[in-house]
Amino acid sequence: MSAPNFIQTATERRDFAAIARWIAPKSKVLDLGCGDGALLGYLRGSLDIMGYGIEKDDANVLACVKNGINVIQMDLEAGLSGFEAQSFDVVILSQTLQAVYHTEHIVQEMLRVGKEVIVTFPNFGYWKHRLAIVIGNMPVSRNLPYQWYDTPNVHMCTIHDFDDFCAGHSIHIRERLILTDGKPVNLLPNLLGSLAMYRFASTLA
User: For residue 91, what are the contacts with CB-CB under 8 A and spacing of at least 6?
Assistant: First the structure.
């Protein structure tokens, strides 16, 4: 049986390489909403990490098992009470933040369980999304690929919103990277950036 082709998936999700730059080799990593395990597979192949995923979808859990990814089937909304404090070097929530209901609780749990946290999400303030709303439609893009009637997204936010959230919850942002088409955006990131990436920890850490 051939090894799963995580490299191809990583090319499609260009944020994988950026996430990998924030993680030390051989780290213990927990990926929340891990999907088919592609990110963990990429990190395992490039950094030799010890990775675990949490996923509730049956098909994705089966894909993880098939791809040799350690996965626990559970709903993120139930919290992470089964994990001890600071038991992971890094906890990741990759393009899932906008699809959870209890955002504040989940971020706090990530900070409890992980020494560092990495969160990525589509920036609702991106100019193409704003233009779509001005025209009169809900935005649909590479990072927001769903129609209004079948979207799993419940809490869209902008980069400014998340910065304010971090400031109001004693979260220390260690690094922030804004991308559009896989390229860094430094000028007017809340307007010109389509994907936001944050590496952070509690100010108490």
Answer: 29, 30, 31, 32, 110, 113, 114, 116, 117, 118
Q: How far apart are CA 109 and CA 125, in angstroms?
A: 26
Q: What's the pTM?
A: 0.89
In this structure, what DSSP letter does residue 2 have? Answer: P
Q: Give residue-wise pLDDT tens across range 20-46.
A: 999 999 999 999 999 999 999 999 999
Half-sphere exposure of 1 (CA within 13 A, CB side): 5
- Count of all residues that appear for the chain in the document: 205
Residue-wise pLDDT tens digits, 95-114: 999 989 999 999 999 999 99
Contacts of 191 (CB under 8 A, 6+ apart): 125, 126, 127, 130
Instruction: Determine contact, residues 41/16, Cβ cutoff 8 Å.
Output: no
In a domain, residue 144? The reply is no
Q: Which residues constitute the domain of residue 106?
A: 6-123+155-202
In the numeric block, which tokens belong to residue 116?
Answer: 């560092």
